[in-house]
Amino acid sequence: MSLKPSQATELSPMNDGTDVNPSSNTHIDDIIAVRMSRRGVLKGGIAATTAAVFGSLSMTACGGDDDNDAKPLALNFDAVAKNKLDMVTVPTGYQVSVLHALGDPLTATDAVWANDGSETPASYNNRIGCGHDGMHYFGLSDNGSFQANRSDKGVLCVNHEYVVSPYGLHPNGRTAGATRLASEVEKEINAHGVSVCEVTRAASGTAMSMTRGSRFNRRITSATPMAFSGPMKGNTLARTKYSPDGTTTRGTNNNCGNGYTPWGTYLTCEENFTNVISRAAGDDAKRSAKEITGLKRYNLAENKKSSYLWDTAGTDDLFARWSASVTGASAAEDYRNIFNTFGWIVEIDPFDPTSTPLKHSALGRFAHEGCWPCNAVAGKPIVFYMGDDSRNEYIFKFVSKALWDSADVGKGHTAGLKYMSEGTLYVARFNADGSGQWIELTHGKNGLDASNATYAFADQADVVTHARLAGDAVGATKMDRPEWGAVHPTNGEIYMTLTNNSYRVAPTATPTGSQLKPDTANPRYYEDIKDGSTSQKGNPNGHIIRWREAGSDPAATTFTWDIYLFGAEAGAAADVNLSGLTDVNDFSSPDGLWFDKNGMLWIQTDDGAYTDVTNCMMLAAVPGKVGDGTAVVAAGGTPTLKGANATNATVRRFLVGPKDCEVTGIAMTPDRKTMFVNIQHPGEDGSLSAPTSTWPAGQSGARPRSATVVITRSNGGEIAV
Ligand code: FEO
Ligand code: CA
Ligand code: CA
Q1: Which of 277, 591, 641, 673 could form a disulfide with 206 if both were Cys (CB 3.0 to 4.6 A apart)?
Q2: Which ligand approaches the C-alpha of residue 14 most closely?
Q3: Ligand 1 atom closest to residue 254's alpha carbon, by position in its atom list
Q4: Helix (H, G, I), strand (E, B), or coil: what is residue 215?
């Protein structure tokens, strides 16, 4: 979801960037200082410092293997101009249609969207949810199984991240008051989660439409039964009134970015789950000091009322369970542990509509943006890369214990349990010299045991449930809000968006509270250009970091990194616009990120800094590789290493979304002829009485709705090439 300037505070009810990281991990500038003084170049000034820091990186990174790089790719479309139109703008020669939008029925029998909020709560078990976000396309064979290379028939899984207030769901928007209406809450619970629907191509052309009534069509909501896998399965931390033995739970929430598996299942990622849980005043007195530490590190202090207030809608279990307050004699008699049941990677088998989704706890609990697999290689582990999207949080990876066997393709949750219930979780440390380490988060290693002074880790379930505290303990690097990641399909390098961070302060400042000075991996401090809007300080435009694992082995414990691209307004100062963006490719706040099979990188934005000039957008890019750029000094004076400058040939704007939207979520058929893109919360800044958008209907009085659009080329050809 978007983080507008006015929302960039901890008071925001829908804040992706809430910061609760109080740890005092070593700042990487301190590491620079140590290394500099060791090398005796500290007095050499910034230019000398920069060269010294990155000289070795450039050499080693450029010396990597070239033989498995992508074939030459070329962007072949006219760049779309920045604009503030209330429509999806695509290049000449392309066309856009709507696949599905909030409230559309998945069945052939339910009534169509009425545009007045009159749909019943129960009907959302069969309707498209709200806040479209991450998604994935799976080819569907004629016998109903996963067929990776099929383009004319498939199953599309789409995340529904949150309920966009005040539009859409309710007749008159959310009814005000400290106590919510049960009917509204039930509808909101059912509008979160994931939709699964079959999509098919017409007899001619490359556009696709939803197949209403397909047996694969399904809604997974915040009330759907789920099972735990991994260390949390049966652990005391997972015990609730619903599942006294801690093996199952209900619902998935705030499903933001996504992932997928090589065996053909969907991964949905629980991000801002802290927004749906309340905890009563006085609850601390019923908790241990250790429990309170864990709750606060995930932003659930006592007397916190969730922004949704779902727990206020009645005593029915459907509602009461959204309060983590201690009310019973034991964890088996209340929902004190409800908070521990969210913040996970959830696996859905789209080919088995009756399957129970799995919460794979071995991959850790945090504000999961997404979960992106490495390129699967027979006999090697499957590695998943993940970001924790809050200010100053961490980047993680999970390395499976099981080794990849392509015979597992199509085996659904059987394969999921094989590869995702056992393995090793790591957190990233980005060093100032362009190297990096993956630090293992295993109980009994690296100080993660009961002797830890901040948090006494009892077992591996405790480590994964409190992965942020584990990251603090081992000195992980605090990042500028890690959003999506993507793995290059041929050279295996990993890219991750760092969307922005208003908590970076000048290198000369004395940080207070959660503020941080810039570091080499999060290097910029500046003030946004004032285009008539309120300017922002820190790193308002974000950047995209990338790394190459040692030996190009995804399971390696060291890597080299650089910053692929810096978001900036084209007119910004050179030390802000470090990638040399121009009118054809300038952007702000990168969020969604996805490689297509040819190695073209797609970048989507969720911005509040450049929206005075343009709506959010999507760009296509042909990236080079780690080490293809130069050492520079970023605005504010911090040295860093950037990738090669962007040009019209390497980064180009492909799409601009409608008013007040976020462009997030992308998928493509294997033949690259049908693209799916999600438009989330058009008209977010308006109200029912004063709407700012009528997209997608485009008619007076139409409520704006999150939607999936289908983009095809008028000539039926491959997209963007
Ligand atoms: Fe839901 Fe971090 O975006
Ligand atoms: Ca996002
Ligand atoms: Ca601006």
Answers
A1: 673
A2: 1
A3: 1
A4: coil
Residue 448 lies in a domain: no
Domain membership of residue 107 (yes or no) is: no
- Per-residue pLDDT, 193: 98
Question: In this predicted structure, what is the pLDDT of residue 168?
Answer: 86
Residue 204, classed as helix, strand or coil, is: coil
| Predicted TM-score (pTM) of this structure | 0.92
Quick one: pLDDT at residue 72? 75
Report which protein residue has its CA nearest ligand 1's atom 3. 1
Q: Which amino acid is at 152?
A: D
Query: Is residue 255 within 8 Å of residue 193, measured between CB atoms?
Result: yes
In-domain check, residue 691: no
Q: Output the pLDDT for position 308.
A: 96
694-704 per-residue burial string, b: 16 or more CB within 10 A, e: under 16? bbbbeeeebbb
Distance 621 CA to ligand 1 centre (A): 22
Give the span between the Cα atoms of 224 and 2, in whole angstroms: 26
Ligand 1 pocket residue status of 271, Cβ below 6 Å? yes
In the prediction, which pLDDT does 51 show?
Answer: 34
DSSP state letters, 233-290: TT-GGG--SS-TTSSEEE----EEEEEE-TTS-EEEEE--GGGG-BB-TTGGGGS-HH
CA of 530 to the centre of ligand 3 (A): 5
Count of domains in the chain?
1
- Ligand 1 nearest atom to the CA of residue 483, by list position: 2
Low-confidence residues in the chain, pLDDT < 70 = 1-20, 22, 26-71, 532-533
Give residue 474's pLDDT. 98
Asked whether residue 208 is assigned to any structural domain, the reply reads no
